[in-house]
Amino acid sequence: MDIDKQRPTILLVDDEEMVLNALHRVLASSEWGLMTALSGAKALEVMARQPIALIVTDQRMPEMSGLELLSEVKRLYPETVRIVLTGYAEMDVVVKAINQGEVYRFFTKPWNNAELIETVSEVLERRRESLNQVSSFTDQLSRANLETVMALAEAIELKDHYTKGHCSRVRDYSLQMAQALNLSKTFCRDLVYASLLHDCGKIGVSEVTLNVDGPLNDDQYREVQRHPVLGFEMTSKIDYLRPASIIIRQHHERWDGTGYPDRIKAQEISLGGRIVAVADSFDAMTSSRPYRRALDFKTAVQELLDNRGTQFDGEIVDLFVSLLEGDTGIAVRADIRRRLLMVGVDHEKISKLKNSLPAARYELITAESLDEARARLDGVDMVICARQLSDGDGVGFLIDCRRLSPQIIRIMLIERQDLDALAETVNQAGLYAFMIRPLRPAEVMAMIENAFEWRRMARTLNFD
Ligand SMILES: [Fe+2]
Fold first, then answer.
1. Where are the domains of the chain?
2. How far apart (Å, rounded) are the C-alpha atoms in residues 168 and 164?
3. Which of 111, 200, 340, 408 lies 20 to 30 A from 386 at CA?
4. How far apart are CA 243 and CA 262, in angstroms?
């Protein structure tokens, strides 16, 4: 059904009839249709019968809460935009929902009529544009899916100590090859998942074997060789990873048919499988192992060239080498250093964070006031800003950031009771996420990495 050709419909959900009537009055318009439902279950019944462009629901309802409803709506109808109305004292659930991408916007009760109308018009306009661009942007890439995949990739790296950073480099190499080949966004998305997870089957291989200091004996070798099939079995059961699971299974196949597990050859191996094989081998050769030093780039390139047509697809090797050597060559991940600006965070916290951020990849700069922060904004990739500063309000600063340099990832640091700040910043400053005090370095680190990963992927796939 072509949703665009119809007038969009908004579904309003609240257990109090008076509130529904009030919302109905505010939002009545000739540009869109309105439906109402008195509970989450009733709302889902309506949605089963007709397409809904936007759902606006109260959070506090008996039986099914607003966020429970929206999480279900996200699963069943990902293209429906989700807005929640909430009272105070529901901070934790709301923050969680925003950080997980369950909710697009939210309003505190009592809401501001003009703001609500403006947001609804804007949401419907943006949705129309995105529907024109792609059939469904959530089909292209989902932030929650990407974060799950990254958490899994990290679990592999924790288990196999010698692969630190390996998965992301294989992802970088693979993606750049796919882009040079002008492959579709869907292909790129599956390739991202597959390259991050290509070794996920190693979770089923014993730690002793994975961390052997030296060449493996026959038994150990056989055990390690099971990982493509184990990885395939894990990922092929998950809907959004099914296309990637094929690549995961095939990343150790060889062009001449002497690889494993299926000993398939040449074009029988999927294009993704052939791309990841080259990226994986190149990164393995250029990383140190306990029993051998890393090869330099030149020697590793020669090794790829020597094995074109036997181990690797020759055309893929040529493409990879041309990207490595060209002007717009493959960026080596270690060369990218991100600049983080922390505004209004106390010294003690910052020195703790500094210890957990790898200095090679992150430069941490600080500002104690907004004036100072404005002066240091040049070249910054991410701003983490407190709510209140000596010379003003963090929200206003983040809104300025969005206007001046929308590419900067904006994260707000809040206290548990700050619901107002929450509403304002999500709605106006287009935040990536909230961090709630007290800060835990490991969580901060994970959020920073995920945010950059997300931005990278969103940009690559032209989705914002
Ligand atoms: Fe592997």
1. 3-133, 143-333, 337-460
2. 9
3. 111
4. 17
Ligand 1 centroid–CA 249 distance in Å is 9
Ligand 1 centroid from CA 230, angstroms: 11
What's the 259 CA to ligand 1 centre distance in angstroms? 12
CATH topology of domain 3-133: Rossmann fold (3.40.50)
Digits of tens for pLDDT over the chain (464 positions)?
A: 444 456 889 999 999 999 899 889 988 887 889 999 999 999 999 999 988 989 999 888 888 988 889 888 887 887 788 888 877 556 666 777 766 666 777 777 777 888 888 888 877 877 776 655 443 434 445 666 777 777 777 777 777 766 667 888 898 899 889 988 998 888 988 998 999 899 989 888 888 887 777 788 888 889 989 999 999 998 888 888 899 999 999 999 999 999 999 999 999 999 999 999 999 999 989 887 766 778 888 899 999 999 999 999 999 999 999 888 765 555 554 456 788 999 988 888 788 777 777 777 788 899 999 999 999 988 888 899 888 888 888 888 888 888 888 778 888 887 766 666 666 666 666 667 777 777 777 777 777 777 777 677 666 655 43
φ, ψ (nearest 5 deg) of residue 259 = -85, -160
**Same topology for domains 143-333 and 337-460, yes or no?**
no
The correct CATH number of 143-333 out of 1.10.1740.10, 3.90.550.10, 3.30.70.120, 1.10.3210.10 is 1.10.3210.10
Residues with CB under 5 A from ligand 1 (ion): 199
CA 49 to chain centre: 32
How many angstroms is it from 201 CA to the middle of ligand 1? 8
Residues linked to residue 367 through DSSP beta bridges, in sequence order:
343
CATH superfamily of 337-460: Response regulator (3.40.50.2300)
How much distance in Å is there from the Cα of 159 to the middle of ligand 1? 14
- pTM (two decimals): 0.60
CA of 140 to the centre of ligand 1 (A): 26
Residue 162 Cα, ligand 1 centroid: separation in angstroms?
12
What is d(CA 247, CA 153) in angstroms, rounded to the nearest whole number?
15
For residue 438, the CA-to-ligand 1 centroid distance in Å is 39
- Tell me how far the alpha carbon of residue 248 lies from the centroid of ligand 1, in angstroms: 8
Question: Secondary structure of the chain: what % helix, strand, coil (to 5)?
Answer: 55, 15, 30
Question: Ligand 1 center to residue 308 CA distance, Å?
Answer: 19
User: How many whole angstroms from 283 Cα to the centroid of ligand 1?
Assistant: 11
